[in-house]
Amino acid sequence: MEITSKSAIANGDGTFVIDTVIVADPKADEVLVKIKAAGLCHTDHDSLNWGKPIVMGHEGSGIVKAIGSNVKNVVVGDSIILNWATPCRTCFQCNLGNEHICENNSPVVAGANGYTEGHAHLEGTTYNGVPIERSFNIGTLSEYTLVKASAVVKNPNEKMSFPAASIISCGVMTGFGSVVNSAKVTEGSSVVVLGTGGVGLSVIQGAKVSKASKIIAIDTNGGRLEMAMEFGATHSILADKNDIGLLRAAAQVKKMTDNRGADYAFECTAVPELGMAPLAMVRNAGTAVQVSGIEQEITVDMNLFEWDKVYINPLYGGCNPNIDFPKIVEHYNNGSIKLEEMITRTYALDDLKKAFEDMLSGKNAKGVIVFD
Predict the structure, then answer these.
(1) In this structure, what is the dihedral angle of CA atoms 87, 118, 8, 319, given to the nearest 10 degrees?
(2) What letter would DSSP give residue 136?
(3) Is residue 110's pLDDT more than 60?
(4) Residue range 165-182: average pLDDT?
(5) Quick check: 118 pLDDT over 50?
(6) Are 286 and 183 within 8 A, CB to CB?
(7) Judging by DSSP bridges, how do beta strands 190-194 and 262-267 pair with one another?
(8) Which 8-state DSSP code applies to residue 84?
(9) 358-367: pLDDT as tens digits
(10) Measured between alpha carbons, how far is 233 from 10 in angstroms, rounded to an integer?
(11) pLDDT (tens digit, 9 = 90+) per residue, 320-360?
(12) Full-model pTM
């Protein structure tokens, strides 16, 4: 039977309301999830201006409430982690193993049947009698959500707190995966991390697990740098907000790395003007990684590419959720990565406005909405 679900709904004009939606019973390939916790990131705030009503949220964990007749990967009562990059497992990219950039289901890959063409994803949730989209096809800022079976991964540690599990869903996976899956950081290497919010801390932890010998954290926030050291950074640089392109910080990095530059540098600031900054941090033939998903048009000084430098822009840390989520949980279980410690504060759904304010002001490494 249909369920009434309290939800955060973006109006599309920069505002949101807390109201109720109606969630339908799952179809054959769908799962009804009772959300227990939903992580917040800047993308959730950006969704306020997507020009249409949408059930907000794309990080989450919860409990399986009901399943469709064809669902085999979970059963009712399972603790699960949600995955927003739901694969079709039949398209060109899925067959190559690139499930995170599925050509049919990805909500962010150009031409995919996501936000622009994904009418099927309007089914199952209604607001005031009208079908409404779920952010990234999952809409986790809601007491209940209806998703494809490929959007849920059973948590192998059912004792893990739901807030900790929820942040694996995007921020942790994006940072950790960018190191382990995309850049493939090697043992004994040097790594620079620009921006030490939730994603940056996850990059640092990925570098630590990869046994990098030098991990240099860069931020304009001294408090965040202190946290970066607690999460595995070996060195820190307090950057000047007026340091254009972080070129002065890059000079400090070179002094720390035998005047060559680091082997790897990861941009995690989401500041368009810093999109090319990691190139200034790496040595010749080093690897620069733009993690935060900058999509604005920027000017590029091609001298930064000299010589033989590699620049990559991975999505979602090259995530294969059925493989990567359990790996992250295993690292959590053995103490090699921290999750609860990354969560600065939890909030009720009614306090979402305050949660956004704290996130935008830089107070939180990670804020999480918790549900009863």
Answers:
(1) 20
(2) G
(3) no
(4) 97
(5) no
(6) no
(7) parallel
(8) S
(9) 999 988 999 9
(10) 37
(11) 999 999 999 999 999 999 999 999 999 999 999 999 999 99
(12) 0.94
Q: Give Cβ neighbours of residue 175 (< 8 Å, ≥ 6 apart).
A: 198, 199, 200, 201, 202, 203, 204, 205, 206, 266, 268, 291, 317
In sequence order, the 6+-apart residues with CB closer than 8 A to the CB of 204 are: 175, 193, 196, 215, 217, 228, 231, 232, 233
Q: Give residue 296's identity as a one-letter amino acid code.
A: Q
Tokens standing for 64?
Answer: 């399986």
DSSP-derived 3-state class of residue 295: coil
Cα distances (angstroms) measured from residue 290 to each of 96, 183, 208, 265: 22, 11, 19, 9
**E strand or H helix that includes residue 49:** none
Residue type, 171: G
* Backbone φ and ψ of 51, nearest 5°: 80, 10
**Whether 78 contacts 63, CB under 8 Å:** yes
CATH for 174-315 (2.60.40.10, 3.40.50.720, 3.40.50.2000, 3.30.360.10): 3.40.50.720
Domain boundaries, the chain: 3-160+339-370, 174-315
Please give the Cα distance from 55 to 352 (Å, whole number). Answer: 13
Name the superfamily (CATH) of residues 3-160+339-370.
Medium-chain alcohol dehydrogenases, catalytic domain (3.90.180.10)
pLDDT tens digits, 9-32: 999 999 999 999 999 999 999 999
pLDDT band for position 293 (50/70/90)? confident
Task: Examine domains 3-160+339-370 and 174-315 and report if their fold is the same.
Answer: no
Edge-to-edge strands of the sheet including 262-267? 235-238, 214-219, 190-194, 262-267, 282-290, 310-312
Nearest to 5, CA basis, from 65, 51, 49 = 65
Contact 132, 46 (CB under 8 A): no
